[in-house]
Amino acid sequence: MIAGPTAVGKSDLALAVARQLGGEVVSADSAMVYRGLNIGTAKPGPVERSMVPHHLLDVADPAERFSMAQYRALAVPALADISARGRVPIIVGGTGLYIRSLLRGDALPAVPPDEQFRREMEEVAAREGPGALHERLRAVDPEAAAVVHPRNLRRIVRALEVYAHTGRPISEAWEQGKGQAQPQSACFLVCNRPRDVLKTRIASRVDSMLAEGLIAEVAALQKAGVPSAAQSMQALGYKETLRFLAGEIDREDLRQVLQTATWQYAKRQLTWFRREPDAIWLDLGVASASGALPLVRERWRECQGGGGGASP
Fold first, then answer.
1. CATH of the domain at 132
2. Gap between the Cα atoms of 71 and 28, Å rounded
3. Residue 43: which of 94, 99, 80, 78 has the closest Cα?
4. Is 139 within a domain?
5. Among 13, 69, 108, 216, which one has the highest count of C-beta atoms within 10 angstroms of its own C-beta?
6. How many CB atoms lie within 10 A of CB 298?
7. pTM of the entire structure?
8. How far apart are CA 181 and CA 204, in angstroms?
9. Listed residue (6, 25, 28, 29) closest to 14, CA to CA
10. In terms of DSSP H, where are the helices of 113-213?
């Protein structure tokens, strides 16, 4: 598993590791699952996919919801198939819930989606704002409220949904998951870089996305009938670009908003992964993917030999 904040260099590193170990990449990114979300997600393109097989990309319609349970239902068989063929599965992504579901799937709340409940909560958010739902979550599950961003409506509603159906906080399941043993075969690496380096990489990523046609990509999704309220269009980069297309901000504002939102998201990702007790942290410094390979090989050998991880 190669995890870490956005723009840290996970995809390039995973590609290099896969080529060296004879592996195949399994994405753990909640936006890359959607067809048509390419530039804004920095999704591996045809060249990368021709070099190494990639799984769990483009498996969902952007107009539809895609849940963590759906992800796991596709990812687990993919991992088993890769291993059965004598290849090394390399899970890469920054969606902590997806990664945790693979490490400790038994701790996930077995609560199916309740569309009526979700619609009711979305109506409350539309009337009173996401902050009102976040306060409801704080009242029944302060631990979850401390982790879930006040504007992350989807995760807030899911946590409230679990509580409504079980009477138990979703954070309780998260805590139980922490206590479960990590599968012996999983080497869980979390990449990081110095703060200034990561911020520079994020700024460069934003500029590249705009230059490559992020605005046109979002406009095309709209033209294809994907609603602005769709789960896919609330992904980082897409909801901000929708504001530009609606005339709320100009292009330079969009650039600044994207840089700020991406940096804030990266910080939340780092906070999430620091809570994972089995994570082995890799400080990539300013190294390229190939330059980081010796460090990955060392950690890989430690995992195979039963070595433990260390927090940053």
1. 1.10.20.140
2. 8
3. 94
4. yes
5. 13
6. 11
7. 0.76
8. 38
9. 25
10. 115-128, 130-140, 142-147, 153-166, 170-179, 195-212
Residue the block writes with tokens 């980069």: 237
Q: Which residue has the tokens 């046109």?
A: 216
Pairing outcome for strands 88-93 and 23-27: parallel
DSSP class of residue 60 equals B
Residue 232 has pLDDT above 90, yes or no: yes
Do 295 and 197 sit in the same domain of this protein? yes
Compute the chain's Rg from CA coordinates. 19
Domain boundary among 181, 206, 232: 181
Are 140 and 191 in a shared domain?
no
The C-alpha atoms of residue 29 and residue 98 are separated, in whole angstroms, by 7
Indicate the number of domains in the chain: 2
Q: Would you say residue 111 has pLDDT above 80?
A: no
Q: 247 exposed, middle or buried (CB, 10 Å; 0-12, 13-18, 19+)?
A: exposed
Residue count of the chain, please give it.
312
> Hey, what are 276's tokens?
């994972």
Grouping H, G, I as helix, E, B as strand and the rest as coil, residue 166 is helix
Give strand pairing partners of 3. Answer: 93, 190
pLDDT in tens, 264-292: 999 999 999 998 877 889 998 887 877 88
The single residue listed with the structure tokens 């753990």 is 28
Distance CA 162, CA 299 (A): 37
Question: Distance between alpha carbon 174 and the CA centroid of its chain, in Å?
Answer: 17
What are 144's two structure tokens? Answer: 């979850």
Assign 3-class secondary structure to 1-20: CEECCCCCCHHHHHHHHHHH
